[in-house]
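Appendix C. Worked example: Alpha/beta fold hydrolase
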Amino acid sequence: MLGMGRGMAAIGSAGLIPSPTGSPSWSGGWPISKAAQPEIARIGAALAAGNHRPEAFRAAVIRRLMRADRALLAGIAAYRRHPFARDLPDPPAIWSEGDSRILDHAPGSAGPVALFVPSLVNRAQVLDLMRGRSMMRFLAGQGVRPLLLDWGWPGAAERDFSLTDYIAGRLERALVAMPGPVVLVGYCMGGLLALAAALRRPDRVRALGLLATPWDFHPSAEDAERARAASALLPGLEPLLQATGTLPVDAIQTLFAGLDPFGIPQKFRAFARLDPASDRAAQFVALEDWLNDGVPLAAPVAREALGGWYGANTPMRGAWRVAGAVVDPGALAMPAFCAIPHRDRIVPPDSARALAARLPRSTVHEAASGHIGMAAGGNAEAALWRPLLEWLRSL
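Step 2, the predicted output written as structure tokens:
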């Protein structure tokens, strides 16, 4: 891992502790993607047939690796010297508690009020990333009053927070402080928090939006095996949890790196080929800066997520409880909007579809995008923003 801050390859992503579904297969200690298997088989057959001398093959591999390494370093250097810096001013805060606050992106608007709940492990700014790539500012320009919950940094009090403390405590108090019932919209892990809060306080929530929100953490036998493997990391992480009261940012980013270890160098090689003055280059830098600016996860939440969600699949089994009550999507009587990105490497589409299938009044939107791209990518307006806007207008 290259560490934190500008110039460091991002190994984090939006939302939750990484989904085992995206984890690579391991063979002989090296991750091998399924897409590479045919090429591996072809090379192996050619070597076995004696069509290539092993020494020549080894030299060719080393030359190829050195070219790839130079391209990676060029991409990292280009990222380090890029002049982009996020300069969006924060809108006014209308509520705060601890380091958490709610930012009002359309003060005084008479439009529908939508409160957005992001994940606990990344900054809320992914929904207000940069000029032209801000879901909040797009919706505000379309007559919606978007409010963004910024969880902030877990301080001394928050380090003891469980999921119940966040949901039945802080999030519920935020809902009570709003001027009236809101549309509650959760992104990734934030969707699980929003769902539980909506079930607890239907008097304060008129509809629920769920963006790339997981539910079934074991959608296949292979996923179940990998999820349990992630859960098995808990004993090794326990010294960190006890020493700091959190799962530190570096540990979270290391977990996320396992989703696609080859993808990180590939994206920096591609960045090296971009025009530094292009919009695509600025967007890349904005997202990388956000990915590298992670937030620690309170130790009790880390234990619940890894041990409960991933290890025991408690949501799907009807065993996830908040303040003693089972979180049951089937009991939600209000309209719901479920956005499921097809190319999601963080939340497998089948995991999110399992939640949509259990909601009595769900509208399902299948987005041709990835987990982060749906929220802040170049195609985000078509992939998510406008479909979400139309649903909000239909309420």
